[in-house]
Amino acid sequence: MNTNRSPCGAAALRVTDVTVRFAGLTALDSVSFTVEPGSVHAVIGPNGAGKSTCFNVLSGVCRANSGSVRLGDTELTGLPPHRVAALGVARTFQNLALPPRATVADSLLLGRHRLTRTGFLAAGLRLPSAAREARAHLRRVHEIAAFVGLADDLEKPAGALPYGQQKLVELARALCMEPRVLLLDEPVAGMTADERRATAAVIAGVRDGLGISIVLVEHDMGVVMRLADAVTVLDLGRRIADGTPAQVQNDPAVVRAYLGAPTP
Ligand SMILES: Nc1ncnc2c1ncn2[C@@H]1O[C@H](COP(=O)(O)OP(=O)(O)OP(=O)(O)O)[C@@H](O)[C@H]1O
What we know:
CATH superfamily of the largest domain: P-loop containing nucleotide triphosphate hydrolases
Largest sheet: 6 strands, mixed
Bound molecules: adenosine-5'-triphosphate
Helix content: 25-40%
Number of helices: 10
Shape: globular
Number of strands: 10
Mean pLDDT: 87
Order of helices and strands: EEEHEEHEHHHHEHEHEEHH
């Protein structure tokens, strides 16, 4: 697969002092962390820690009350989701969001939509430029499907695939947007052990082979500890630890947050 397609090269994703309040509840309290280019950065924490809220801020679904999110020199703060996606931050969803009857190929082509230059008039008139562009997108869809291991499933309805493969279709669709940063919301939730292993290998391949930065919200600590280069731990909306998997695993504040032990 051509691995040199990220639009504007490597850039750090900087989250600075982000605060989100919902009617009196502070879901994120001045949270900061930096996702280094080409790394897997996990955001973990017990239930209600603020992980989904953080994810929603990064993807533009949720507006922060204060603080900023920047990708390299580009300000993402307050932009709507489609603008954030256009600037190179793609996301997958915790629950599958695939059109059930569409084939895998069509689902992946949906991911190419923002990169399509030909207007609907040229496409409708079947101009040669439109046909050339459509062929190039289809070629790329085939490359990405092969990269994630879905090459033999392109003509199947996405909704008929086993659950683990449907999640891979979602991941492949996000890759079809040629992102610089990929936000993965619980990518292995509900999977069998084999599916978890296969998906973890694909995620590592995306980082190592494509150089795309990945932000991972995941409850499966085995996957987090194996895959992540860095981990930010949230508890009750606050960042309580930040470091390598080994560092945060041994951090007393993290142990307390997960075990619910009282703070001395
Ligand atoms: N739209 C909302 N309105 C009001 N409160 C919200 C909203 N979204 C989240 N919250 C609250 O904000 C806090 C953080 O929630 P969030 O879903 O971000 O945590 P989480 O770490 O993703 O939890 P989980 O692991 O259970 O999914 C929780 O107390 C939650 O109830």
